[in-house]
Amino acid sequence: MAPLDVAAIRADFPILKRVMRGGKQLAYLDSGATSQRPVQVLDAEREFLITSNGAVHRGAHQLMEEATDAYEQGRADIAAFVGADPDELVFTKNATEALNLVSYTLGDNRFEHAVGPGDVIVTTELEHHANLVPWQELARRTGATLRWFGVTDDGRIDLDSLQLDKNVKVVAFSHHSNVTGARAPVAQLVERAKAVGALTVLDACQSVPHEPVDFHALDVDFAAFSGHKMLGPNGIGVLYGRSRLLENMPPFLTGGSMIENVAMEASTYAPPPQRFEAGTPMTSQVVGLAAAARYLGDIGMDAVENHERELTAAAIEGLSGIDGVRIIGPRSMEHRGSPVSFVVDGVHAHDVGQVLDDEGVAVRVGHHCALPLHRRFGLAATARASFAVYNTPDEVDRLVAGVRRALDFFGGA
């Protein structure tokens, strides 16, 4: 496979031309938190708002028709990108809301898969708070018990730490950890869940932008991802759900757009996905996210994955070669995605981040919305570099050099 023309790709991202404090060229290594947007996405949103902005699925005028067509074509394009059918995708304001939608409806006894007293909800110690706290709340509301898979010393899910039984109703896990980068053993987890009749919920925020993802092939029941992490707009997330499950699920939010009929005594609801899209939808964001999906699709997700794997491997090798730096997560690319979290002996993660910022290198510092995982490793915070299709080997070199500078400046342990 030919290498990517990264220079041409970078030309699509105006923000990457920025010169930061001290005259340093921006090296943006924080795409795991939020990615940058290409002009193709910015232009798609702008063009829609200038020419076709209207209320979706309302009225009979031309702008409404054009807006509705753009909205539903966007759904189809995004569905094709993740290996799903259009009616299996629900638009939400972010992935957190998508995961809350699932957890909330699983507490509604109108749903055949509703969770109740004596049932067990399973997650993992690797999770972002968005795939942990909603399940804690579901357990609290329903009287169910929350259990979890532990984490190995190299930051992967420890499959031997928990056995599933017939009381388990839900197994929720991340495709890639946003801290350790660890890739979940999806096939094994799905097989175990199916064996006990449990539903599977996948947090795919850190995988969809970085590698080919096919939800049908993964065979999960639900999955969530966000727009702003895959070169798309803020304010939009996506929930994937199997059609047969969505058809039987009660609504999450109620009001306009999601109804079939309303009387003073009671209401009936539209079929999915409209049932779960109450109110005026985020039409321009859908248009922008669809443009992002097409942009990545035109590059080719195999090529994106290969490029990012090379960058990640180089970062791990470079950081591991510094005495006093410890990688939190798997070293082997077989078991990981692009986030690389690390600690520097004797230097707080925020100080590392500040030194890197002085060099124009943007990374994430803190607990990355994963406090239990940091406690598992006895850490208050880590620094994290996360890569995207627009990053370069030179930026990896700048990361490694900046970490060396931080260690030298603060004196290490």
TrEMBL record:
MF annotations from Gene Ontology: cysteine desulfurase activity; pyridoxal phosphate binding
GO biological process, one term: cysteine metabolic process
Catalysed reactions listed for this entry: (sulfur carrier)-H + L-cysteine = (sulfur carrier)-SH + L-alanine
Pfam families: Aminotran_5
Enzyme class: transferase
SUPFAM superfamilies (UniProt xref): PLP-dependent transferases (SSF53383)
InterPro entries noted in UniProt: Aminotrans_V_dom, Aminotrans_V_PyrdxlP_BS, Cys_dSase_SufS, PyrdxlP-dep_Trfase, PyrdxlP-dep_Trfase_major, PyrdxlP-dep_Trfase_small
Cofactor(s) needed by this chain: pyridoxal 5'-phosphate
Coiled-coil positions: none
EC number: 2.8.1.7
Entry keyword set: Pyridoxal phosphate, Transferase
Domain Aminotransferase class V: from-to ranges: 28-399
CDD domains noted in UniProt: SufS_like (cd06453)
Signal peptide interval: none
Family: Belongs to the class-V pyridoxal-phosphate-dependent aminotransferase family. Csd subfamily.
Function: Catalyzes the removal of elemental sulfur and selenium atoms from L-cysteine, L-cystine, L-selenocysteine, and L-selenocystine to produce L-alanine.
Protein name per its UniProtKB record: Cysteine desulfurase
